[in-house]
Specification:
Layout lengths: L3 H14 L4 H29 L3 H10 L1 E2 L2 E5 L3 H12 L3 H17 L3 H25 L21 H19 L4 H24 L5 H27 L16
Antiparallel strand pairs: 1-2
Length: about 250
């Protein structure tokens, strides 16, 4: 038997395992991103527990402070006020109000299954954040004074994680019911920018170590992606309202 026969058989098997449609490729990419985000969080958590991130955390936190006065963040006074406003976008009160508003809108527009999915996604992410904080119990930074009041443990950042969970999950849901690809890109860019700004404000205000925020982004993005994949599966199973179809000539 020639060498070409087993090679052709191997290629045939590999071809059967490779995604054959755009839909399957999207699912595979989504799962890979979830795994990558979880692994990144696990790696960060291990480094934090071993104390290997201490030098990095201290360097970044001090770089954002006036060397002559650690209680004074760099930049003009108005920038600190803006940071306080931005950080409130990741607070429990704002996220809860925003989520309830979206749930109400979905219910009123007869997308009740989608409303339940949003409630479960954000509620589950909130519970996961609380459990992770209790499990790691990392103290808040004591290197610089805090510019806002804090009451919980430091790792991972709840503001960074929950803003990712809420804004990315809601953004992904809105993308599914928006027919125009330009608007989809706008929604995802807005959700991502808000998540990044909220996390960055926590470090600037001195209430989180940088690795707290990075970890929050990782696990929050993983949760949002997982919820998005569940939403796709439920839609195709007919259990969540089918999204609108893009008009001709406006597909991505």
């Amino acid at each position: 038997m020639s060498l070409g026969t087993p090679l052709r058989h191997l290629a045939s098997v590999a071809g059967g395992l490779w995604p054959t449609t755009r839909r399957e490729a999207g699912w595979l990419l989504g799962l890979l991103l979830v795994v990558a985000a979880v692994l990144a969080f696990a790696g960060l958590a291990g480094e934090v527990l071993e104390g290997d991130t201490r030098t990095f955390d201290r360097a970044v936190l001090l770089a954002l402070r006036n060397p002559a006065d650690p209680g004074d963040p760099i930049g003009p006074r108005w920038l600190e006020e803006v940071a306080r406003d931005v950080t409130s976008l990741g607070g429990n009160a704002i996220l809860t109000a925003f989520t309830l508003a979206v749930i109400g809108f979905l219910a009123l527009t007869e997308k009740r299954a989608a409303a339940v999915l949003v409630a479960a996604s954000v509620g589950g992410g909130t519970a996961l954040s609380s459990l992770l904080k209790l499990g790691f119990s990392r103290p808040r930074p004591d290197l610089v004074p805090h510019a806002v009041e804090v009451y919980t443990a430091s790792f991972p950042s709840g503001h960074a994680m929950l803003s990712a969970v809420t804004y990315l999950t809601l953004g992904a849901l809105l993308v599914r019911v928006q027919p125009r690809w330009r608007v989809r890109l706008y929604i995802l860019a807005l959700a991502s920018a808000t998540t990044i700004l909220v996390g960055a404000s926590r470090v600037y205000l001195g209430v989180h170590w940088p690795t707290d925020v990075l970890a929050g982004w990782c696990v929050g993005a993983a949760w949002a992606l997982l919820c998005w994949l569940v939403a796709l599966w439920l839609q195709r199973a007919g259990r969540v309202e089918i999204p609108l179809s893009p008009p001709d000539g406006d597909t991505p």
